[in-house]
Amino acid sequence: DTEVTQTPKHLVMGMTNKKSLKCEQHMGHRAMYWYKQKAKKPPELMFVYSYEKLSINESVPSRFSPECPNSSLLNLHLHALQPEDSALYLCASSQVPGASYEQYFGPGTRLTVT
Amino acid sequence: GQQVMQIPQYQHVQEGEDFTTYCNSSTTLSNIQWYKQRPGGHPVFLIQLVKSGEVKKQKRLTFQFGEAKKNSSLHITATQTTDVGTYFCAGQSGGYNKLIFGAGTRLAVHP
Question: What is the arithmetic mean of pLDDT over B72-86?
Answer without folding.
Answer: 98
